[in-house]
């Protein structure tokens, strides 16, 4: 029996869940596969809807029903004006998804070989609905845009199946192709990781320093591949700056980048503070610290508020015992462990001065400056867009004024990006309180943050 459109879509998403459960990771896909598939189908629908420069009620309803989100045609129109979707972008997104389906490591061969075709059939059907609906003016641009896209996707499917058949017939050649594919995947993965790092809001000086370090490691790797002498490079570093400036986020990205470069085996991040390293009993601190070091081997040990380890030098404090244990581990595991110590700028200077071994081990200090009001506003807009909220012009002006005032006051509780998160959550609470007393709430109401929702927000 033929599945309905929504049944087919849900079946595709169910297959995504199966692949994730079996540990299958999508090439070039850094988010859960089901979320990526939903994103791909949504972008495909937005592309078709915008191809004729005319968003209709039917198109908005189709998108709303498929994805169960309260979008209006006015919101789609504004969204596409801000972020136009091109055929090349859609092809790149969908071709990655097709590649994952075709390569899926599952036992049911019939499912493995037919899923890509199922997705193509579904997209064909979906595109046809857009083009032939009575509510849509059958613009030649829309038909042409869909035709070009589907032709490219079918060509991809045909070429991929042909390469699979040739690889099956020649096992030796298959092995060579696999090695090249893995090498390419690693390079693409590194490219994506660097792109994610460089697309972070603000942090220009941080990104400049880290890109220089990464370039050094790339050259270091090239020299190693050509059997040239290697200079010793210390990768332990200090991240200094106020809370909420992205230190943990960058450390996590850096671990993945180091893995892609072959510097680290795993690239994972283990985050810890004084309480995770120091014990209140004699002899227990070294054991506790070694346990965290073992957990971080192959990745990054991120010590938040590291200055707390050396803040007290009394006889009953065991912070220096943790420091000495760390210093030894940094030497013993210098090829498979990176330690990043983080905290306020002034206090981290005191931390480095507390022990001669610290400054020599942590010879790179990267300063994370506070975000500007415009950068905080950019982060806030990003949070809104990610959750399908739109700001009125008055709300945007009010929010920017709030962030300007917040940065000028230099309050001790100012927390940069964390302030934005708290501001966003309070705005949603205020919006909910405003809509709760309304008798007729439209889809656009649910997706709009007004000046009333943000003008009375206070953070402490």
Can you characterise this structure?
The chain has 460 residues and is α/β, with parallel strands linked by helices. It folds into three domains: 5-169, no CATH class; 194-368, Rossmann fold; 373-454, Helicase, Ruva Protein, domain 3. It is built from 20 helices and seven strands. It has a five-stranded parallel β-sheet. Strands 6-7 form a two-stranded parallel sheet. It is globular, with a radius of gyration of 26 Å. The N and C termini lie far apart (60 Å). Residues 105-113 and 171-188 have low confidence and may be disordered.
Fold blueprint:
Elements: H1 5-21, H2 33-51, H3 57-67, H4 73-82, H5 87-103, H6 109-132, H7 140-169, H8 171-198, H9 204-225, E1 237-241, H10 247-260, E2 269-272, H11 274-277, H12 284-296, E3 300-303, H13 319-332, E4 338-343, H14 345-353, H15 356-361, E5 364-368, H16 373-386, E6 390-391, H17 393-409, H18 417-436, H19 443-446, E7 448-449, H20 451-454
Parallel strand pairs: 1-4, 1-5, 2-3, 3-4, 6-7
Helix pairs in contact: 1-2, 1-6, 2-3, 2-5, 2-6, 2-7, 5-6, 5-7, 6-7, 7-8, 8-10, 12-13, 16-17, 16-18
Please tag this protein with its features:
460 residues; alpha/beta; Rossmann fold; Helicase, Ruva Protein, domain 3; five-stranded parallel β-sheet; two-stranded parallel sheet; globular
